[in-house]
């Protein structure tokens, strides 16, 4: 019982901090619209995508890892859960969101 109470106390203490950087807001920021890349020439966009893939890996080749926009916590709890992911995890999530958006733009415009 004591460990359950300890968890409740930790969650209550974390609630005020979650308003500053909550997990849902951070996960939503990882989802990038592909239309943002539609004005970039195909060659330039492909080069930008290749640079990101070299640095962060290809999200389409690593399906076992969490993809941008995928929830981390059970429904209902994420609103009060602060984003405790490391800076590297946050950066990779944003980069993967950009890569997936670039892939969509490239498939839509440059695959002719």
Automatic annotation (TrEMBL):
Keyword Signal: yes
Record's signal peptide: 1-19
UniProt entry tagged with the keyword Signal: yes
Region (Disordered), start-end ranges: 55-83
Recorded superkingdom: Bacteria
Keywords on record: Signal
Biased composition annotated in UniProt, kind: Basic and acidic residues: 57-68
This protein's name: Lipoprotein
């Amino acid at each position: 019982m004591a460990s359950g109470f300890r968890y409740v106390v930790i969650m209550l203490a974390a609630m005020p901090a979650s308003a500053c950087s909550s997990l849902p807001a951070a996960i939503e920021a990882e989802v990038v619209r592909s239309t943002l890349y539609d004005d970039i020439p195909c060659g330039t966009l492909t080069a930008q995508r290749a640079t990101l893939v070299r640095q962060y890996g290809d999200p389409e080749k690593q399906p076992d890892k969490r993809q941008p926009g995928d929830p981390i916590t059970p429904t209902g709890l994420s609103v009060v859960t602060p984003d405790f992911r490391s800076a590297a995890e946050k950066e990779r999530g944003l980069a993967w969101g950009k890569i997936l958006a670039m892939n969509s733009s490239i498939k839509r415009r440059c695959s002719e």
